[in-house]
UniProtKB/TrEMBL annotation:
Keywords: Membrane, Transmembrane, Transmembrane helix. It is a multi-pass membrane protein. Pfam families: MauE. Its main location: membrane. This is Methylamine utilisation protein MauE domain-containing protein. The chain crosses the membrane at residues 45-65, 72-89, 117-138, 150-169. It comes from the Bacteria. Residues 188-198 have a biased composition (Basic and acidic residues). It comes from Brachybacterium halotolerans. Residues 1-131 form the Methylamine utilisation protein MauE domain. Residues 172-222 are annotated as: Disordered.
Length: 360
């Protein structure tokens, strides 16, 4: 029994240490996760993301303090925290769409699933065993009073490492997280907009470019209350920037907040389209307000599949010459850098007098 209790304490402590350390380097991801999980008091998210990593680390270390009753108090607080985490995840599994959560910062699988709930159930059980262990004055009692305690401790450490890998593992981290940039293709950069935006502009030598341009595949999108339109029709006169978002996803919310400014900077040369899976008319007013009339439905996800932009958020630039002009890129940072590069290139081309307005 002592070895089981000691292993539980070690595993819970190590898990919280890893979780806290990972969150320290990914506070933006922690805030995004709070948005994705629809936690209340959004104004407090920044403060919570700042304090939570330190709190997890303090709790992880507190159960080892050689002070009467202090380890027990910290163990009880850990169980309370694990119960809260369990309830948040169980609630999120009932959402209409999958949720990404930086439960372990930059580590582990970010997409919540029933496996995530099983993992947290295991942690909760270990937390309860940890309370029993600290109530029995472990590990001091186990080390000093039990024969062969040092060997048992070594075994417990090895078991803890194995269980920690199982706890943090599961599925691999995928680009659907929206955490950071993920590029599919040779280069995360837009083709020179002066070539992509206007079929009448001087054509560049594609062979000299790192980005391999390929024909725009067939695909359809649909604005609310309108007939579906093909990508070929969409880019008949000017380039088109497609941006996929999933309302409620933390990184997607950041991208949505920037859509208005991007449209203002690009609309004369590049049309901007904010793509979602659902009917735009059924989305929250805040989403429709930020996306404006750029909001459109990616019918059954056909564009995301054909353009290999299955992440959220993601972006692709389509040229007016029937070829892909940049992307796909994924993640809030990746999409933001991608769009800012397009804006910069268009500004440079305009300064050089190389841009021909589609309406000219």
């Amino acid at each position: 029994m002592p070895i089981l209790l000691l292993t539980a304490q070690l595993l819970v402590s190590l898990t919280l240490l890893i979780s806290g350390a990972a969150k320290l380097g990914d506070r933006r991801g922690t805030r995004d996760a709070m948005v994705s999980l629809r936690l209340p008091l959004p104004r407090a998210h920044a403060t919570a993301a700042l304090l939570l990593p330190g709190a997890e680390i303090v709790l992880a270390l507190g159960i080892w303090l050689p002070v009467p009753l202090v380890p027990l108090a910290f163990s009880v607080l850990i169980v309370v925290l694990l119960v809260l985490y369990w309830a948040i995840i169980a609630r999120a599994l009932g959402f209409e769409e999958a949720v990404s959560c930086s439960c372990f910062g930059t580590l582990g699988s970010p997409t919540l699933s029933r496996t995530t709930l099983v993992r947290n159930t295991l942690l909760l059980a270990l937390g309860a065993l940890s309370v029993i262990g600290t109530a029995r004055s472990l590990p001091a009692h186990a080390i000093m009073g039990a024969p062969g305690a040092l060997g048992q401790l070594v075994l417990a450490v090895l078991l803890t490492g194995l269980l920690a890998l199982l706890t943090l593992g599961g599925t691999s981290r995928r680009s659907e997280t929206g955490q950071g940039a993920a590029v599919v293709g040779d280069r995360p950069s837009a083709h020179e907009p002066s070539d992509a935006a206007d079929p009448r502009a001087a054509s560049a030598d594609d062979a000299d470019l790192d980005y391999e341009r390929t024909p725009t595949p067939f695909g359809m999108l649909q604005r609310s209350g309108e007939e579906p339109v093909s990508l070929a029709a969409l880019t008949a006169e000017r380039a088109a920037l497609l941006i996929w978002v999933r309302p409620g996803c933390g990184p997607c919310e950041r991208v949505l907040n920037a859509i208005g400014a991007w449209r203002a900077a690009l609309e004369e040369t590049v049309s901007v389209h904010t793509l979602v899976r659902a009917d735009p008319a059924g989305l929250a007013p805040s989403v429709r307000e930020r996306a404006g009339d750029s909001l459109a439905r990616d019918i059954e996800g056909n564009l995301a599949v054909s353009l290999r932009a299955t992440s959220s958020p993601a972006a692709v630039l389509l040229g007016a010459d029937g070829l892909l002009a940049g992307g796909p890129v994924a993640g809030a940072e990746g999409v933001t850098a991608f769009v800012e590069e397009i804006i910069e290139q268009i500004g440079q081309a305009r300064d050089r007098g190389e841009l021909i307005s589609p309406s000219a």
